[in-house]
Amino acid sequence: MSKQIDIARAGAHEQVAVVSFNRPDKMNALTKIMEGQLRDTFIALDRDETVRAIVLTGSGRAFCAGMDIAELEVLPPEDIRAAEWMRPYDMNRRADYQSRYSYFMGVRKPIISAINGAAAGLGLVFALYSDVRFASDKAIFSTAFAKRGLIAEHGIAWMLPRVVGPGHAADMLYSARKVSADEALAMRLVERVLPHETLLADTIAYADDLATNVSPRSIRIMKQQLGEVPFQTLAEAIALANREMFHSIQSEDFTEGVAHFVERRQARFTGA
Predict the structure, then answer these.
(1) Which residue, 161, 211, 151, 195, is CA-closest to 9?
(2) Which domain holds residue 225?
(3) Do residue 191 and residue 257 come from a single domain?
(4) pTM of the full predicted structure?
(5) Most buried one in 28, 152, 180, 242, CB count within 10 A?
(6) Helices (H) then strands (E): counts for the chain
(7) PANTHER family per the record (predicted)?
(8) CA-CA-CA-CA torsion sign (211, 269, 255, 263)
(9) Residue 77: which CATH number?
(10) Counted domains in the chain
C-alpha cells in the first residue's frame, strides 16, 4: 500500500506531530487509501501520550484539493454510509465526533491546520474540523460541491455557519467560488494569514508553544467543553464547567501551574 500520509516530529521536545497529505503531484486529492491512513494516523496520535499537538498540512503547492476525481467518478452511492468509515474508536466519546471526518473533533489534542495552498471540497472540510486554521497568503478556499452536482457534504452545512456565519456559509456553498486567504481571514474562516515561506515554521512554533507551556489536561478538557457547547444549554455548559473545575483544582497540572508561576520557571506539565 502506498504511503499517502507522512508523519514527522517537531518542536523543542518533539511533542508536535506534523501530519502531511502526501500526493503533491495530484494536489493531495483524497483517495480511499489516504482516507484510511489519515484516520488511523489520528487515532494513533490521539493515544500517543508523547504527542501534545498536531499540525496538519499538505505536501507541495496544495493543502488538499478534495476527493480525487478519478475515485469520485466510480464512487458507489452506498459508500457514503459504509460502516468502516463510521466506526467509533472510543465508546466514551460523543457519537457526533466519531463519524467520517468529524472524528478530528474527538481527538484529545489540538489540531492546527497549516493551509499551504488550495483547500477545496474535502480539503475545506478537514480545515473546518481542525481546532485552529492558519493560512498561507497563497491559500485558496472553495466548497466546490455545487459545481460537481453534489450537496453540502460531511456535516459542512452544520460546521461552516458556526465558523463564518450563515450568510458567508450560504455564499460559499451556493456559488462554490474561490475565496482568497485575505477574504478568508476577513470572514473568520482562518485565524491567521502568514507568509507562504514561513507558514509551516510559524504554525509549528505555535503548536510547540501549546505543547510546552500549556497544560495538556487543560486543553483536553477545554476541547471537550467546546465540542459539547453546540448541544448544550447555558445551564448545562456551566454545570460541566463547575464539575471539571472541581477536578482541575485537584489535578497535578494545577499544582504545577501554580508552582511554575510562583517560582518563575519553565512549566513541567504532565497532563495528569
Answers:
(1) 211
(2) 215-263
(3) no
(4) 0.92
(5) 28
(6) 11, 10
(7) ENOYL-COA HYDRATASE_ISOMERASE FAMILY PROTEIN (AFU_ORTHOLOGUE AFUA_1G01890), PTHR43684
(8) negative
(9) 3.90.226.10
(10) 2
